[in-house]
What does this fold into?
Amino acid sequence: MQFKIPNRTFLPNLIFFSFVYFLTARLGLMLATINHSVSPVWPATGLAFGILFIFGFRFWPAIAIGAFSANILNTGTFTSAFLITVGNTSQALVGTFILHYFIYRTDKFGSHNRTLGIVLASLVGSCLSATVGTTALAITGVTTWRLYRAIWFTWSAGDFLGGITILPLMLAFFSNEYSKQFDEFRKSRIKLTSIAALIVSGIFLCWIVFFRPDGTPYLFLLFPLLLCCVGMAGERGVTIATILISIVGIVSVQLGFGVFIHGSTNVNLINLQLFLGSVGISSLIMSDLKRVSSLRQPAIILLFSWLIAGIFFFTLYNRSIEETNKHFQVVVDSVGPMLEARMKFYFSPLQSETALFAASQKVTHLEWKQYLNYSDYFNQLPGVEGFGVVFRVYKKDLQHFIKARKVEGLNKFKYHLLPNISKKDLQKTNDSLESFVVTYIEPYEKNILKAGLDMYSESNRRIAAEIARDTGLPTITSKIFLLDDPKKRPAFLAYSPLYTKGPVPKTINERRARILGWVYATVIYRDFFDSIFLHKNYKELSYSVTEANNESSTPLVASSTDYDKLPKSDIESRSINVGNHNFILNFKRSAAFISKQDNFSSWTGVTASILSLLIGTFIVSLQSVKKSAIDLANRKTMDLKASEEL
It folds into this structure.
């Protein structure tokens, strides 16, 4: 099968092969995911095997030159690029040696020598390249050892698929045997008509499988399509079909369509590669079967095996869908109680501070600060930017109140309104006889702009304070933006009311008459909700939180980073009231949740398809043995008759 290239054209061909490998490697790196040097799609592996096997080992420098050029442009460091090049070149040499060993030993491995050679060359070569390359990235600091396993698996999966798809295509097109078959095929108009129908059917099937979210149950229909390709167009036809199916699958993942779309891009491509690996191996084995004999009997066996495997797969898939739906509902239903408990945990420091004021004749700023430092609330409560004390001050007493703060040592204390408030809020503040003044605030230097702020001047802050005052319960504000937050992140204030000493007030009028002020906490919405949903029990959920009954055009207060990237189907919503405030929580299945389902589809599809092929191949082998035995018996009988005649 090896093409002899004259020595005088060696250098031009070396340059050409180097350039082709370079372009193929750069194409693969364009799809890099987990690391800029690691791609789950790597057709360069099959290209390298094909170059060395078809044109000779002496072209190994082409692989080295192309690999080094692609990687030095990608990593920018000589050491990592050199080590990766060593891995890629070693992969090509070792893989081609394995390929030679199997392909030229038909006496030992029978009709499946080519398939065994391609699969083992791709498997051993991909493991070798992944080990060398991943280690190189780790020791040169391009990645961390913590990601070693994920990078190694991504690297080897991409290399393996590249080997079992690209190499068979090159072998098919550079073989004289298949060239004769192709010439005969071109002369048949009937086959051309059948191929046209097959192409249309293939396009329609690929659209269903790879561009529709409900395409998973139809994955097994791709295998009969490959069988038709083998029967009508031979090895060239089925290798082209395998390449096209792989391309369509990869494009669908990149565009966010089809079955494998629910995890990260890297996870999606790996799940796709697992399935495409079974497609590639299936096309190789079916080509072997056709080369041995007619496909008529094997086709019946394979179709029956695929039917059984497809029914089995469909049953398991539906059961998996049912179980995952139930699990999703259970996880979503547990969020409400968890959120209520979490909010109570945030209210607990406020109620403790309220008790401090209730138990003391007077609480100075220094005493309150020491209490907070001792309690260490900032480290216990993610998202808390500060704690403060707000006092209700009548406008007529405001100047006296400010002087008292100066005496207390708060020299930078200055009464002010919130900037850029609406005319309505400004008018209401001017008409009011009282102010809600932020008096104590910690950490002081971080929150100095809030000292002296009149909470009454902004409606969300004022309304929540009044609700807390009237109910006697901890209350949170609608979405606000903090005065000193340059990132302008959505936040809320959590209030707990302070009343004058005496029995606990039981009526609204009592509470309004005895209100002294409020203790409050400033909390970033996103950090608060992440403290819940980043917990291992809720990593399967992607969330979005909006305020209910909010007239704002942007009621969103927090969402996970991947929420908008996930499919819009299967959204679950829950309403909840915490801190006298209504929220609507929307949930989607996160990558951690649905990738399990995609992983199930990939591995089940791979296992069932390979088992079907093994069963079909085993039965065909038995038939072949039977035929050989009959032929041998017939020959012996004829020899015996011939000897008797003599």
Observations:
- The longest strand covers residues 384-394.
- The chain has a mean pLDDT of 82.
- The chain has three domains: 1-174, 176-310+597-646, 338-531.
